[in-house]
Amino acid sequence: MAATTSWLPADAKGDFSIHNLPFGIFSTGTDAPRAGVRIGDSIIDLKALSEDAAAAELKFIKGAARTFAEPTLNAFAETGRATHRGVRAELQSILSETSSFLKDNEALKQKAIVPVSAAKMHLPMQIGDYTDFYAGYHHAFKVGVLFRGPDNALQPNYTHIPVGYHGRSSSIVISGTPIRRPRGQILANPTAPTKEPITSACKRLDYELELGCFICKPTNMGDSVDVNEASEYIFGYVLLNDWSARDIQAWEYIPLGPFNGKNFGSSISPWVVTSDALEPFRAEALENKTAIQPYLQETQKKNVYDIQLQITINTDGKTDGNVIAETTSKNLLWSFPQMIAHHTIGGCNLRAGDFLGSGTISGTELRQRGSLLEMTEGGKQDFEIGPGKVRRFLEDGDSVVMHGYCEKDGVRVGFGECEGTILPAKAL
């Protein structure tokens, strides 16, 4: 994989190189939200670029012009992987060091290049439905040990199917949106023989480090997606923090699973990184020794990505900058194509903009765990998040920042950050 340079300068971390070019929705001033692509500390305004006369020679960008003025990427996503790939290739061409197409066109540069600092980011897609899976094996095993012991850590179905549940799409928010501490029913004394709940602000608020994917290709109700064709249904990926109220969830989840303990907020990073940008970073998922059903068997052995994932907690309004956990998305037992195949095996129809979460991604070691629940042994011990600072669960004012990136042969493709700050619960 050879590194290519652009005439536009890179950002400080190098997440948004010419090898990345992720898609997002941004606005400036009073202008309406529209589609853009990030490179370095700049945004290429796709609406402005596609409307210029010079774009006539950019076949894919010109062909998708009508979608770039939309306030979401749904219409563009639905044009299909061939169009996404074509637009990205044309952008790579005109942004490369050797191209003068945009570099020497001052008038077009003024219209089509926007500083990131001048832009406001919005949710990239209108999310119709959200499904959260539980594909992070080490997280599932650790939590199972905490709740049921090592001999019964995983349910019998775990290695047979990508376990998941239907979540709440209305409370998915863009990075930087504050998260209000939820209220709900919790057990005042979980160890008491008589289970008597109270209504309270959550006392065990947690984050969950996940990867999310957006669907671009709809299916018909009654149809299923072949696991070896499922990648064509994926528009791209974002970081996902699926916040969790552990005490609310513990009281409510039996027998029907998560509800108010999960629906109060989920944060995503704003830039959708395409499958094509991640292609050089393919890796094998964790070995599944179970003989899985034929509809889940992939011919692609490298079916996940080696994305380095990091968590930082900033406190008291300060940027502490201490990375408290690092792991990789290779720690998944199931791939997103397998999730799609299982999601549709019964005939459930997908729509462009639907969103799938991976489930919490953790490694085997303490500082590779993707939630405080795991790090604190279920809230039983302190975990150091910085010099002189410990947590068992999140406190008001804590800011959780997640980063993700791939790096190989001098090429880096990153996601930027997914950040959310905890606000106090509202009074009843």
Describe this structure in words.
The protein has eleven helices and 26 strands. With 428 residues, the chain is an alpha+beta fold. β20 (308-314) and β21 (323-328) form a beta hairpin. The longest helix is centred in the first third of the chain and has 15 residues, at 81-95. It is globular. 46% of the residues are buried. The mean pLDDT is 96.
> Poorly predicted ranges (pLDDT <50, ≥5 residues)?
none
Distance between the termini: 57 Å
Work out the number of β strands. 26
Give the radius of gyration: 22 Å
Instruction: Give the helix tally.
Output: 11
Structural class: alpha+beta
- Helical fraction equals 10-25%
- Overall pLDDT metric: 96
Strand content: 25-35%
* Major beta sheet summary: 8 strands, mixed
- General shape: globular
Descriptive tags:
eight-stranded mixed sheet, alpha+beta, 428 residues, 27% strand, 18% helix, five-stranded antiparallel sheet
In a nutshell, what does this entry contain?
With 428 residues, the chain is α+β, with helices and mostly antiparallel strands.
Can you lay out the helices and strands and say which pair or pack?
Layout: E1 23-27, E2 34-39, E3 42-45, H1 46-51, H2 59-63, H3 65-68, H4 74-77, H5 81-95, H6 106-112, E4 113-115, E5 120-122, E6 130-133, H7 137-148, E7 164-166, E8 172-174, E9 179-180, E10 183-187, E11 197-201, E12 205-206, E13 209-215, E14 234-241, E15 244-245, H8 246-252, E16 266-268, E17 273-274, H9 275-278, E18 282-283, E19 304-305, E20 308-314, E21 323-328, H10 336-344, E22 355-357, H11 372-375, E23 383-386, E24 389-391, E25 399-408, E26 411-423
Parallel strand pairs: 6-22, 8-16, 9-26
Antiparallel strand pairs: 1-2, 1-5, 2-3, 3-4, 6-7, 10-11, 12-15, 13-14, 13-22, 14-16, 14-17, 18-19, 20-21, 20-25, 23-24, 25-26
